[in-house]
């Protein structure tokens, strides 16, 4: 694997894109993780194909980073996944289901889409030591984001 700080990488990506806080070990581990996901998905697709049901299968990937050309501008949240799956399956979306189907966005014909979202993050489960006391609430629009750090209000971000 090429050293991320090599002249070749700096020339390719620029100095600003190279996060010097991320170790080579971390980068390698992330690359290995992505390779494992890719290989695992390949096995799943092969198994579905072998069973003759690949064409009847819908696979969903989620990420907080969009690939060029696959990005939609509307605000979506994780609760939109359930109604999307129901919509694709042709199952009625009950009133008790939160979120909205993303199918109209994927088809490019969504109207009256949400203009803002509320995000809440609590660290009561303490997933990582560096997240302790990092609880926040945020409001997000297509143009603005305001983050209120619950236990660090002097650090609020606009």
What does this structure look like?
- The chain has three domains: 1-57, no CATH class; 69-112, no CATH class; 115-158, no CATH class.
- Helix content is 30%, strand content 11%.
- The protein is built from four helices and three strands, in the order H-H-H-H-E-E-E.
- A three-stranded antiparallel beta sheet has the order 1-2-3, with no helix packed on it.
- Strand 2 (136-141) and strand 3 (145-149) form a beta hairpin.
- The protein is globular, with a radius of gyration of 20 Å.
Outline the fold blueprint:
Blueprint lengths: L6 H7 L10 H27 L30 H9 L13 H5 L8 E6 L14 E6 L3 E5 L9
Antiparallel strand pairs: 1-2, 2-3
Features of this protein?
three-stranded antiparallel sheet; 158 residues; 3 domains; alpha+beta; 3 strands
Shape: globular
User: Count the helices. How many?
Assistant: 4
Tally of DSSP β-strands: 3
The averaged pLDDT comes out at: 85
Low-confidence stretches: none
How large is the radius of gyration? 20 Å
User: Span between N and C termini?
Assistant: 38 Å
Elements, N to C (H/E): HHHHEEE
Tally of structural domains:
3
**Strand percentage:** 5-15%
Structural class: alpha+beta
**Main β-sheet: number of strands, strand sense, barrel status?**
3 strands, antiparallel
In short:
With 158 residues, the chain is an alpha+beta fold.
